[in-house]
UniProtKB/TrEMBL annotation:
Pathway(s) the chain acts in: Lipid metabolism; bile acid biosynthesis
Top-level enzyme category: hydrolase
SUPFAM superfamilies: N-terminal nucleophile aminohydrolases (Ntn hydrolases)
Pfam families: CBAH
Identification of the protein by name: choloylglycine hydrolase
Keyword Lipid metabolism included in the entry's annotation: yes
Assigned keywords, A-Z: Hydrolase, Lipid metabolism
GN (gene name): bsh
Length: 325
């Protein structure tokens, strides 16, 4: 499972938890302006917006899991196994393979509004990147530095681009159902609730945090959607970049999957392999991993964005303990 959010704290911060049982050898990958991007059915792009995010690279092609561009647009792909349906290429459509959709949108869109225009005539195709890397069943969150966000889902009914009033996405079910389910949690609050069940009874407030007593805490995608919405909607804005990115990671950690809790096969457990978040105005990409709780940063503007080659940084996975004596 995965969770993706946009957090507003003056600047906007966008990223995700990647929850899975196994990594792919992913890296931090920067695609500079002049690195040509090829698409199966769409024209090759010689020049485009620069992109930074988590990706694997095969045949010199960046297969992004999530990323942002220099204009302050972010996009993340999350598992959507079951409802996801892609189609063969169709005449008269903008045919974009599922593995191409993140580079395509981030290379071309300077806002969510522009991404919506690019998607208006789009058909997400079922083309495989290769036999070893077939199309993954995904849906996507796109957000920008104004705070706007949309959910993109291709199902048997076609392509839907939903305005996302929450600024969060997890996995199944389809996005409209996630929103309906939120109504079931209208009463969740940071405040201590009144005794409305039996006002004549003395029901002592024996603990702080009663307002979230019924907040779901499961690993499943509906529970994570509710929990991250509550956490995000009540998160304070900080007074500095460090405070903001610290708050941001606390929001994602509210739905972190610890090892040993989500068994996907005998003795195999899904967990939060990495969490990342970018400042959409500054182009700084931050991440942590399950094994490394330190926040690492890669600033896209410190790189040569005029280059024609991909720039990669290994994911720092080693825990660094600050020994104090
Ligand atoms: C599985 C990942 C999503 C994480 C997630 O939502 N897990 C939840 C699992 S579940 O709901 O509990 O079943 C997705 C996110 C990005 C995906 C990768 C990216 O799309 C890039 C390529 C695309 C290729 O077509 C397939 C390999 C791949 C390298 C993908 C593998 C996998 O599907 C990834 C890593």
């Amino acid at each position: 499972m995965c969770t993706s959010i946009i957090y507003t704290a003056g600047d906007k911060y966008f990223g995700r938890n990647l929850d899975l049982e196994v990594g792919f050898g992913q890296k931090v990958v920067i695609t500079p302006h002049n690195m040509p991007l090829e698409f199966r059915e769409m024209p090759r792009l010689e020049h485009h917006y620069a992109i930074i995010g988590i990706s694997i690279v095969r045949d010199n092609y960046p297969l992004y899991f999530d990323g942002i561009n220099e204009k302050g647009v972010g996009m993340a792909g999350l598992n959507f196994d079951g409802p996801a349906h892609y189609f063969p290429a169709q005449k008269g459509k903008d045919n974009i393979a599922a593995f191409e959709i993140i580079p395509y949108i981030l290379a071309n869109a300077a806002s969510v509004a522009e991404a919506k225009k690019l998607l208006a005539n789009a058909n997400i195709t079922n083309a495989n990147f290769s036999d070893k890397l077939p199309a993954s069943p995904l849906h996507w969150l796109i957000a920008d530095k104004t705070g706007a966000s949309v959910t993109v889902e291709s199902t048997i009914k076609g392509l839907n681009v939903y305005d996302n009033p929450v600024g969060a996405l997890t996995n199944n079910p389809e996005f409209p159902r996630q929103l309906v389910n939120l109504s079931n949690y209208r009463s969740i609050s940071p405040a201590t609730p009144k005794n409305t069940i039996a006002p004549e009874l003395n029901l002592p407030v024996y603990s702080r945090g009663f307002g979230s007593h019924f907040l779901p805490g499961g690993m499943d995608s509906e529970s994570r959607f509710v929990k991250v919405t509550f956490t995000k909607m009540h998160a304070p804005a900080g007074n500095s970049e460090v405070e903001n990115i610290t708050n941001y990671f606390h929001i994602l950690q509210s739905v972190e999957q610890q090892k040993g809790l989500d068994e996907v096969a005998p003795d195999t457990f899904e967990y939060t392999i990495y969490s990342d978040g970018s400042n959409l105005s500054k182009g700084i990409f931050y991440y942590k991993t399950y094994d490394n709780s330190q926040i690492n940063a890669v600033d896209m503007h410190k790189e040569d964005l005029e280059s024609t080659e991909l720039i990669t940084y290994p994911v720092q996975n080693e825990q660094v303990i600050n020994q104090q004596n």
